[in-house]
Amino acid sequence: MQDIVSDLQAELGARVMCESAVTHAHARDTWSLAELLDYQGQPACSPIAVVEAGSTADVAAAMRICRAHKTPVVAYGGGSGVCGGIFVGEGTVVVSTRGLSGLISLDNGDLTATFGAGTMGGDAERMMQEHGLTIGHWPQSIEVSTVGGWVATRASGQYSTGYGNIEDIVLDLEVVLPDGEILRTRRTPRAAAGPDLRQLFLGSEGTLGIVTEVTVSLRPLAEHHVRQAFHFDGLAAALAPVQQLMREGWRPPVVRLYDPRESRRHFDEACPKERAMLILLHEGPKTAATVEASEVAALCEKAGGVRADSSAVDEWFGKRNEVPSFRSLVEGGLVVDTIEVASTWKHLVNIYDAVTKSLSEVPGMLSATAHTSHAYRSGANLYFTFVAKPDTPESMVDVYRDCWARAMRATLDHHGGIAHHHGIGRVRRDYLASEIGDTGIAVLSQIKRALDPDWLLNPGNLLPEPTDRN
User: Fold this and answer.
1) Could you report the per-residue pLDDT of 185-196, keeping only the tens digit for each?
2) Structural contact between residues 448 and 207, judged by C-beta atoms closer than 8 angstroms
3) Mean pLDDT of 321-326
């Protein structure tokens, strides 16, 4: 191990950090199970070194040296992942992209901006707003996640219904491959030049390369905003107008529907008991936003929706980027997590019913709820939250795994997709074959072998490690 550290230091000098405080801070992401294991004395391994890269050349050099030593490498951005995408194993080097930060170029005419991959999301958005522009990508983790992390996890934001997900916003990428070579895609609005290589790295979760630069397509800040809310007799009743508004071509950036239990928790008196709350944001040119809000309101009221005070939407906007910490919950003996899935419209209610019913059967379950926050012409997501209090601390890990297994099985049994926007990581890894089939796993594994024959980039994440790496 000392040999590789020496070689890294010879090439990269003080950018190679081995202090325990630094290595410990880069051992894992914010996965709930990792927090629980850490609390119970089973932490992730600290890396043998953290390379705090300051340039793409630094990343490439680190990759070449690690490959020569056959040393595993994990890329680390904001560390905000919630699926165990980062859980360092023994003898691993971490490459931090946080030093690849800042605005590299901005073209207001073409509406493009290029950022270093380690730029924090909130910083990137504020830079654009200074120019009257927006990226239009608002994950809840915007203040603690990086632009490169958005790409690696194939992220989605709170405005996705109107503006699309990260794959709709990214224009081009720079990626360091496992052998240290640098790939740069072409900056065009669309191309028919073979398969889209950007899509290879969107959602690859640090297993195929390390993203170093991201160019996004921007939009001007909206001229006008309309916020409104309606409550309905249950989740199923409210899904109907959401499906209809998407069918008719309306695209409010924010379309969030909470089941009755979540509605009560989030909106208190603004939503009557046993009612489901739908909140909406319409924005753009004043005429367009006003007309859209009026037409969508008519759809909601026709479907039995009752208008709620728009202050409920204001309250949501005030709290929307608060990211919960699992540590205090774990210390209180609670097992907590969120699980987001997706499906076509005809299966959504069945998935909701099946998952919440199965979770409610877990001993010690206190709450199993859901909302939908991303809508499409052909379907939507469901975002489940569960809270359980097992009888003993020793059973917490088993209860956690049971909850995930139940949610995954119920989703798959009712024709849903197992991940909408948090990715696969380690928590979903063993269910991926049920999503894409054994043939799909074989295809991904062959791509992995072609780019990373020694299986060094983030081993154990996304795909199971092969028993034979030759």
Assistant:
1) 999 999 999 999
2) yes
3) 76
Match 């072609």 to its residue by tokens: 450
Q: Give the residue from 230, 232, 269 showing the smallest Cα distance to 252.
A: 230
Distance CA 71, CA 350 (A): 46
Position 469 pLDDT exceeds 60? no
| C-alpha dist (Å) from residue 328 to 176, 324, 334, 403 | 38, 10, 9, 20
The least confident of 33-47, 53-67, 169-183, 453-467 is: 453-467
pTM: 0.96
- For 327-413, CATH number out of 3.40.50.1970, 3.30.300.330, 3.40.50.2000, 3.10.50.40 equals 3.30.300.330
- Selected from 3.40.50.200, 3.30.43.10, 3.40.50.720, 3.40.50.2000, the CATH number assigned to the domain covering 2-96 reads 3.30.43.10
Residue pair 376/19 in contact (Cβ under 8 Å)? The answer is: no
Residue pLDDT, tens place only, 152-184: 999 999 999 999 999 999 999 999 999 999 999
CB 257 within 8 A of CB 238: yes
Provide the residue ranges of all domains of the chain, joining segments of one domain with +: 2-96, 103-220, 224-319, 327-413, 428-470
Q: How many CA atoms lie within 13 A of 346 on its CB side?
A: 1
Half-sphere exposure of 402 (CA within 13 A, CB side): 17
Helices (H), 307-344: 311-319, 327-331
Q: What is the CA radius of gyration of the chain?
A: 23
Secondary structure (DSSP) of 353-416: HHHHHHHHTSTTEEEEEEEE--EETTEEEEEEEEEE--SSGGGHHHHHHHHHHHHHHHHHHTT-
Q: Give the CATH class of 103-220.
A: alpha beta
Task: Measure CA 50 to chain center.
Answer: 24
pLDDT in tens, 221-244: 999 999 999 999 999 999 999 999
Q: Which two tokens stand for residue 199?
A: 């899509």
Distance CA 14, CA 2 (A): 16
Phi, psi for residue 360 in degrees, rounded to 5: -65, -20
